[in-house]
Q: What sequence folds into this?
DNA sequence: CTGTTAGCGCTTTCAC
DNA sequence: GTGAAAGCGCTAACAG
C-alpha cells in the first residue's frame, strides 16, 4: 500500500537514498541541514518506511510471537491468558516489541508459523518434540516452551504435579470420598501419541497420587470439559449433575472450570462450601473476587510470562547462552470454597 | 536466521528457483515428479520460506494490528480486553490471520506503528484525528477506530453517554445524594487538546446529565483512578476513604474499577449494597461472578471486537466500500450491588 | 558528509 | 514444463 518510496523522497529532496535512510536511522551521521530538509520532504510526501523491506533486510520484525494451542477466540476464554499476556507484555513494553498471537490455523499450524513475521516464539502447551513445533526448527527461529516438556530448548514450567497433589490432599484429608475431578482437553494433545505431558495430565497425576495415598478409589476417568473456560466448567458440571452424580467436592484443573462449577452450583441451590467444596488451579486474579472466593493453587502467572519473554529475548540477541529450564513453585491458597 | 534459501533448494534439486517457488505456491503448474523431488529436497535441507521476503513482495503479512492506548501490561489489567480479543480473534481464526498487539512505545507510537508488520489496524481509544493515528495515514494502511470519534474512517462505538445516564439515573432515583463518581484516565487523552471524547468523558457526560435532571449537585471533579484495573479501583477507593469521604453509592466508569471498589469495601467491612451501592460499566464476564454480582451497564464487548475486525478485513481486501460508523446499544443489567 | 552499488529472499512475467 | 532476469523497498559497505 505504501506508495511513497525512499527513492522518491531522495529525488525530491535532492539527496541520495542513503541520506534518506540515514535521516531516519542514524541522523547523527548527517548534517542537521540535510536531515531537516529530508524530513520536510518526507512529511510533505507522506513517506513512511516499509516495515517488510526493513524486516527483510535486518531479519528483525520487532515482534515476538505467542503460539497458543487453540483458536484465539477459545484461548482468551481462559482467564489465565490475561495475566500471562501482562507478563509477556511487560517485556515487550520494555524492549519496544509487539506481541503477535498465532493460533493453529485449521490444524495446519505449519502455515501459520511460516507466515507469521515474528522474531521468536513463546510456545504454549506443547513440548519441544510436538509436531506443531517443528516448523520453528525449520525457520531457525528461537523459541521457548511454556507448559511443555523440553530438554534442548529453554522452557518455563510450574510444579503442576506437586500443586495438584497438595490441593487433592487437602480435600481428601477432610474425609471426602466422592470427589469429582474436572480437567480439560488440550487441543494439541490429540495430535500426539500417549505419553504427552500436557498440564492437564500433569495435574491429574498429582490428584491420582493423593487419591492413592489416601486409599480413595480413583474411579473412572475424570470429567473432561470441552473448553477451559467458565462456560466449559458450567456445562460439564451440569452434565455431571444430569448423570446423577452428587459429589461432595470438585477438584478443577483450572480456575476457569472452578468458576463454572460455582455458577452451576449456585443455580441449583447447592451451597459452597457447606454442601460442595470446590478447588481450582492457577489463582487467576478473579479468584479473589469470585462468589465465594476460590480456594486454589497459585502459580505465578505473570512472572511466568515475564520469564518466558525474557528467556526469548535473551535468545534473540544474545544468541544462545544457557538454554535454561525454569520450574516455578506453586502454593496452596485457601479461601472460601473449602472448609 | 533462516539460512536455507530457495536458491539452495533449487540447486540441490537440479531445478530453477522458479520451480521451487511454484512447488509451494502453484504446484499444479509443475509436473508432479518435479514437485515431489523439490519437496523432498526442501524437507531434507529444512527449507522454510522467509515470511519477510514474502511480505515485501505481496505487501501482505497476514496479521492485523491492535493499537492499544497504553502499555500492553497495563492494558490487559483491564478485564475488558479478554472478551474484546476473543471477538477480534474469532475473525482472525476464520481468516487465518495473526493478531498483533501494538502499544505506544515510549510515547513514540510513531515508531511502533511504523515498525509493526501488520496489514491493518484496530485502533482503541483514539479518534481518527488523534496524533497517534497519523502514522497510519502515512503508511496508507486501513484502520478502524474503536471507542473514538471518526467521520472518515470506519468506526465502532457504543452508547456510552446513554448507558452511563441510565446507570446514574437508577442510583439517583433511589435518593442518593452522595455518590462517588470514579473514572479512569485514558493515557492518550493527555496528548490532545480539550474536547477529546474518550469513553471516560462520554460516560462522565451521561452521569452529569442524570445528576442535573435529578437536581443533585455534581460537586467537584470525579475520582480518577490511575489505572483502569481492579487495583486501580481498589486504591482509588482507599484514597477516597482516607480523605474522609463516605459516599452511599459509587458510580464506576468501568467494571474493573467497580471490582476494586468491592474489594476495598469488603476490607473495611462496608456492606454492599446495604451500606454502599456500586455500579459498573461494560459487563465483563467476571461481573456475573463477583462478590456480590455486579450491577452494571452492558456493552456487547465480543461483538464489538468481531465487528471491528470484520470492518477491517473488509477494508483489507474489498478496498474501501462504505466506511461505516457503527454504534452498539448498551443495556442496564441489575444484579446484586444495587438494591 | 554524500553518492554508488550490491544485495536481503522471494515472486512472476516472459521467453525458451 | 522450465529457466533467466527484473524488481518489491530498504540498508550498509565502500569509495569519493
A:
Amino acid at each position: 500500500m505504501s506508495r511513497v518510496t525512499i527513492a522518491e523522497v531522495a529525488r525530491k529532496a535532492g539527496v541520495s537514498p542513503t541520506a534518506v535512510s540515514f535521516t531516519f536511522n542514524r541522523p547523527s551521521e548527517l548534517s542537521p541541514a540535510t536531515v531537516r530538509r529530508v524530513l520536510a520532504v518526507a512529511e510533505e510526501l507522506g513517506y513512511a518506511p516499509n516495515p517488510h523491506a526493513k524486516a527483510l533486510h535486518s531479519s528483525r520484525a520487532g515482534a515476538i510471537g505467542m503460539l497458543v494451542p487453540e483458536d484465539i477466540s477459545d484461548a482468551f476464554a481462559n482467564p489465565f491468558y490475561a495475566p500471562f499476556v501482562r507478563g509477556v507484555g511487560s517485556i515487550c513494553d520494555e524492549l519496544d516489541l509487539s506481541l503477535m498471537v498465532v493460533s493453529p490455523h485449521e490444524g495446519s499450524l505449519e502455515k501459520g508459523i511460516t507466515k507469521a513475521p515474528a522474531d521468536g516464539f513463546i510456545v504454549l502447551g506443547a513440548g519441544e518434540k510436538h509436531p506443531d513445533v517443528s516448523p520453528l526448527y525449520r525457520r531457525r527461529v528461537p523459541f521457548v516452551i511454556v507448559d511443555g516438556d523440553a530438554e534442548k530448548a529453554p522452557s518455563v514450567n510450574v510444579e503442576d504435579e506437586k500443586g495438584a497433589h497438595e490441593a487433592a490432599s487437602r480435600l481428601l484429608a477432610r474425609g471426602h470420598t466422592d470427589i469429582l475431578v474436572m480437567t480439560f482437553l488440550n487441543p494439541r494433545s490429540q495430535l500426539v501419541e500417549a505419553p504427552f505431558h500436557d498440564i492437564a495430565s500433569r495435574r491429574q497425576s498429582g490428584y491420582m497420587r493423593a487419591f492413592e495415598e489416601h486409599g480413595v478409589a480413583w474411579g473412572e476417568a475424570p470429567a473432561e470439559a470441552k473448553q477451559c473456560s467458565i462456560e466449559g466448567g458450567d456445562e460439564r458440571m451440569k452434565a455431571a449433575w444430569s448423570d446423577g452424580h452428587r459429589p461432595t467436592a470438585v477438584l478443577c484443573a483450572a480456575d476457569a472450570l472452578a468458576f463454572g462449577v460455582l455458577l452451576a452450583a449456585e443455580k441449583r441451590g447447592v451451597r459452597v462450601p457447606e454442601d460442595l467444596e470446590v478447588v481450582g488451579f492457577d489463582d487467576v486474579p478473579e479468584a479473589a473476587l469470585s462468589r465465594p472466593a476460590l480456594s486454589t493453587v497459585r502459580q505465578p502467572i505473570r512472572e511466568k510470562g515475564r520469564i518466558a519473554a525474557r528467556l526469548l529475548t535473551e535468545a534473540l540477541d544474545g544468541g544462545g547462552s544457557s538454554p535454561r529450564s525454569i520450574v516455578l513453585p506453586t502454593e496452596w491458597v485457601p479461601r472460601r470454597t473449602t472448609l
Residues 15-19, 22, 29-31, 34, 53, 56-59 of chain B lie near DNA strand D (CB under 10 Å from a C1'). Chain B touches chain A through 70 residues (CB under 8 Å). The two ends of chain B are 62 Å apart (CA to CA). The first strand of chain B starts at residue 63 and ends at 67.
